[in-house]
Specification:
single chain; 7-stranded parallel beta sheet; globular; alpha/beta; 6-stranded parallel beta sheet
């Protein structure tokens, strides 16, 4: 059983990576509980939507969801549970107390303390106490967790309560067809969560500066914005510029749509403003862009920059760029040199070792 409250049942990590790998390679009977979304047919995988319709990040349904998922555990009686959010640690631990022999895994996809404390996902007065509560819960329940799955190497140093862990990075599931190489490099793309901390505003400002130099520059933004105030601000900034296409809403975008956009784009943008919540992260979209042979413009951290350099995958953006020179570099970009370590398949042996032990 893989379970999350806000991740869609067809989530790229929960379903495409962990779920499919366990179903296909271990012949496991995999059940996935999550946010309602379209579900493909995959042998060995059964999907369970928490509710029939999507719900808001801050809502009564979110408070009810962990209780409902706990009763799903009781009804479906899984032998192993992977929870992908802190909200399901207590339901998972309680179920483990009721059914002997159950193994509980915590798939840590975020440093929740940092994400709550240093982003605008929650009202400001709630951030500090809510972050402290979540971290306390993680510490108290951690002895019940058999193994921690970490989506980022940086979590090893940031999360002092973890033990028995394996780093399973959020790499790209290898595509059967390579992306088209000959593209207009001035077609820029920004994907993923749209928020102050993920660089969506910086991507718009970069595109505006480049468009002033060359009106062939265009930008596509695709993602979900959990903060409605930020989404309104982003729409106001982009609506007046026809060369910017914004496809965004309050609910997650199907991963298939993201991959289709990457296949059509010419250059990806990854610009993170300084924030403790993203300081050590290697963005999932970096693996996706490079793995689909899409070069990038990036400003983030040294580890991410090193990835790009190893693959000859794009341009590390200085703090004060020369935009005319940047345009020339953009036009000359070549497809990245893809390496096997960019793909999820390189992580699968570690996953199988956890579940075979």
């Amino acid at each position: 059983m893989l379970a999350s409250v806000l991740k869609p049942v067809s989530d790229t990590r929960m379903f495409e990576k962990l779920g499919q790998s366990l179903a296909l390679l271990l012949q496991a009977d995999v059940h996935i509980i999550g946010f309602p979304s379209e579900t493909p047919y995959v042998q060995g995988v059964t999907f369970h939507k928490i509710f029939s319709k999507p719900f808001r990040r801050i809502s009564l349904k979110r408070l009810i969801a962990p209780v409902k998922i706990f009763f799903m555990f009781l009804r479906l009686r899984p032998e192993s549970i992977i929870v992908s959010t802190h909200e399901l640690l207590i339901p998972g631990a309680l179920y483990k107390c009721i059914k002997r022999g159950v193994r509980l895994y915590y798939d840590v996809q975020e440093n929740y303390y940092f994400n709550i404390r240093f982003t605008s996902a929650f009202p400001q007065l709630l951030r500090a106490p809510l972050a402290a509560y979540v971290r306390m819960k993680e510490r108290l329940v951690s002895p019940a967790v058999n193994h921690f799955l970490l989506a980022e190497k940086g979590y090893v140093d940031e999360l002092k309560f973890i033990r028995h862990y394996t780093v399973l990075e959020n790499k790209l599931v290898k595509q059967t067809e390579a992306a088209e190489n000959q593209k207009n490099r001035l077609h820029l793309l920004f994907t993923g969560t749209l928020a102050e901390t993920t660089g969506a505003v910086q991507a718009v400002e970069l595109a505006l500066e480049l468009h002033r130099q060359d009106n062939q520059v265009r930008l596509t933004i695709i993602g979900h914005a959990p903060d409605e105030k930020f989404l309104k601000k982003l729409r106001q900034r982009t609506d007046e510029h026809p060369f910017i296409q914004l496809r965004a809403g309050p609910f997650p975008v199907p991963h298939k749509v993201i991959l289709e956009a990457i296949a059509r784009a010419g250059t990806g943008i990854i610009i993170y403003p300084h924030n403790p919540s993203t300081r050590t992260s290697i963005p999932t979209k970096l693996y996706e862009y490079l793995g689909m042979k899409l070069p990038v413009i990036i400003r983030h951290n040294e580890a991410s920059h090193e990835f790009v350099k190893q693959c000859r995958g794009g341009i590390v953006l200085p703090d004060k760029p020369d935009y005319q020179r940047l345009l020339e570099e953009l036009r000359a970009l070549q497809p990245p040199l893809c390496a096997e370590w960019l793909y999820w398949e390189s992580e699968v042996p570690k996953l199988l070792q956890i579940f075979n032990s």
